[in-house]
From TrEMBL, chain A:
Record organism: Thalassobacillus devorans
Protein name per UniProt: DUF1806 family protein
One Pfam entry name: DUF1806
Gene3D superfamilies in UniProt: Hypothetical protein YojF (2.70.180.10)
InterPro entries: DUF1806, YojF_sf
TrEMBL record, chain B:
PANTHER family xrefs: N-ACETYL-ALPHA-D-GLUCOSAMINYL L-MALATE DEACETYLASE 2-RELATED, N-ACETYLGLUCOSAMINYL-PHOSPHATIDYLINOSITOL DE-N-ACETYLASE-RELATED
Species in which this protein is naturally found: Thalassobacillus devorans
Protein name: N-acetyl-alpha-D-glucosaminyl L-malate deacetylase 2
Cofactor requirements of the protein: Zn(2+)
Gene3D superfamilies: LmbE-like
Organism lineage: Bacteria, Bacillati, Bacillota, Bacilli, Bacillales
Stored SUPFAM superfamilies: LmbE-like
InterPro entries with a match to the protein in the record: BshB2 (IPR023841), GlcNAc_PI_deacetylase-related (IPR003737), LmbE-like_dom_sf (IPR024078)
Length: 123, 222
């Protein structure tokens, strides 16, 4: 991944508009937050492979961290704190926000095909 | 006894084995006892992406699978990946997971099984897999049932559970343990810095946690 280049990310968001796409949306502060700091809270959410179609989307922000909003027929997909992006070899738009130590705090990913982790083990 | 000894370690994530039990594992391997690691997931939802970042949500599983294989090579243990998804173990049907584990244990016929102590293992995956393992081992016929050690990691667990039955000083295997931890390149620096950032960080105490691997012997009559 590399630092957000707003124009490139906007272009990718535009390319997925008005198509059925799969979205991975996630935020986390880790499963150990309250273990390592008793005053912290463990908070996280993810939705993997939500099938949506958005009318349009935007990346907004100045400086290091950006917000992304996708306008759906009946609602929104929203992520805040996005710092890095990558258009991977499968043409998927991967966006994420990392902290100083490189830990993922938020992710928003858009793909025309369902996401499956690269290494999937069959049991 | 020792010639037929076989240890099976069951934790949910690549790196749990290195942080939690690498010294214990090394001590059994030194005696020539085979050790098998059943790794529940590939840790694909982890938030450590390397520092500097080299993985993303989609590629993390590949890095962690490689790291797992390297760690198991460093510790000279067999590994089997159980194929569950990181963060979701507690939502699986527990009897199915237990049955899956039981079938593998009946094939390997271990003399000792090591897992997490449910309710005292911090991460929901640790607690869930520990629960399934206890059920699996309980369901094995008496005459074939291995000994079961469970590991607690929650803060102050000793207050509730009392002193652990087994306390391994793994100092003789320290280099091996550190080498195993370091194979988990995407995770190790993040975990280590988390430990150091703790508001009440006490280096000696943290080193103690890594140096003394502690387990409770599970009592099946309860």
């Amino acid at each position: 991944m590399e630092g957000i280049v707003k124009g490139k990310v906007q272009q990718a968001i535009d390319q997925f508009a008005e198509k059925e796409v799969f979205v991975h949306l996630e935020t986390t502060n880790g499963a150990y937050a309250s273990h390592f700091d008793e005053n912290a809270y463990n908070v996280g959410a993810f939705i993997r492979n939500a099938k949506v179609k958005y009318e349009h989307g935007k990346i907004v922000g100045t400086g290091g961290a950006f917000r992304v909003g996708l306008k759906l027929d009946l609602g929104w997909v929203y992520a805040e704190g996005v710092t890095d992006y990558e258009i991977d070899d499968q043409g998927r738009l991967l966006m994420a926000g990392h902290d100083r130590e490189g830990r993922l705090m938020v992710a928003l990913q858009i793909s025309e095909k369902p996401f499956s982790h690269e290494s999937v083990v069959q049991s | 006894m020792s010639s037929q000894e076989h240890v099976v370690v069951i934790y949910p994530h690549p790196d749990d084995e290195s942080f939690g039990a690498a010294g214990t594992i090394a001590s059994y391997r030194e005696k020539g006892s085979p050790v098998t690691y059943l790794c529940g997931t590939l840790g694909e939802m982890g938030r450590n992406m390397g520092n500097p970042v080299f993985a993303n949500r989609e590629t993390l599983s590949s890095f962690r699978k490689e790291e797992l294989l390297k760690a198991c090579k460093a510790l000279d243990v067999d590994v089997r990946m159980l194929g569950y998804r990181d963060k979701t173990l507690e939502f699986e049907q527990m009897d199915q997971v237990a049955g899956h584990i039981q079938s593998i244990l009946e094939e390997i016929e271990p003399t000792l099984v090591i897992t997490h102590y449910p309710g005292y293992a911090v991460h929901p995956d640790h607690n869930a897999l520990g629960t399934a393992v206890i059920e699996a081992v309980s369901n094995i016929e008496d005459s074939h049932r291995p000994e079961l050690w469970v590991q607690a990691i929650a803060t102050n667990y000793e207050k509730e559970l009392g002193e652990p039955d087994i306390r391994h000083d793994v100092k003789p295997y320290w280099d091996k343990k550190m080498a195993a931890i370091e194979t988990h390149l995407s995770q190790a620096s993040g975990m280590m810095s988390l430990i150091k950032e703790k508001p009440d960080f006490n280096e000696n105490e943290e080193l103690e946690h890594l140096r003394y691997e502690r387990f409770y012997r599970w009592n099946f009559t309860n």
